[in-house]
Specification:
Low-confidence stretches: none
CATH class of the largest domain: Alpha Beta
Shape: elongated
Largest sheet: 5 strands, parallel
Radius of gyration: 18 Å
Number of strands: 11
Distance between the termini: 25 Å
CATH topology of the largest domain: Rossmann fold
Strand order of the largest sheet: 2-1-3-4-5
Helix content: 40-55%
CATH architecture of the largest domain: 3-Layer(aba) Sandwich
Order of helices and strands: EHEHEHEHEHEEEEHHHEE
Number of helices: 8
Number of domains: 2
Length: 223
Amino acid sequence: MRLLIVEDEVRLNKTLTERLTKRGYSVDSCYDGEAALYYINSAEYDGIVLDVMIPKINGFEVLKTIRERKIQTPVLMLTAKDSDEDIISGLDNGANDYLTKPFSFDVLCARIRAMCRIKDNITDSTLKAGDLTVDLSTRIVRRGDNVIELSAKEYSILEYLLLNKNIVISKEKLEEHIWNYDYEGGSNVIKVYIHHLRKKIDEPYEKKLLHTIKNSGYVIKDL
């Protein structure tokens, strides 16, 4: 999942970016509303954590602008403003959720997961294809009764392919969702990760789930 963090408190911004990255998210971050609109117009995000009191363009105006542009990326408002008026204003302008400061990081992660499940029309916290399951809450991957250990990037690729089960995803689309603006990988990076992922989730098993579609991309096919 690719996230954008918009928070003008430098320490909090860096902390959120670092901790969410460790949780396996691909994270871009910025500190004001103008930069936020630039990032949102330049990339496709799975979720946005947006502070209200940010310089240049406040969070409410950023939210209003992207909704007017028909950008439906889920937005979690993160702010110290906790009056009913502020919460109603955020939700009425298209926010998907609202979390006030101070907050628990684990609660923030749970809200992000829930927000993204709604976007992808997921009714529970488990993704499945054949006998392969991924628990979105615990990030535990199983094939049958066997737990499979994946690196953060392997997990992110698998999760995104499962969210788009039976749909061919191009290499470019994977790069856009799994890596942030700092990505400088070569043309074979995705191929290498897919190779490692296939060895773990497919190679030991008779039925293969992960398929390469020549000149098109990759797909998890449900059996």
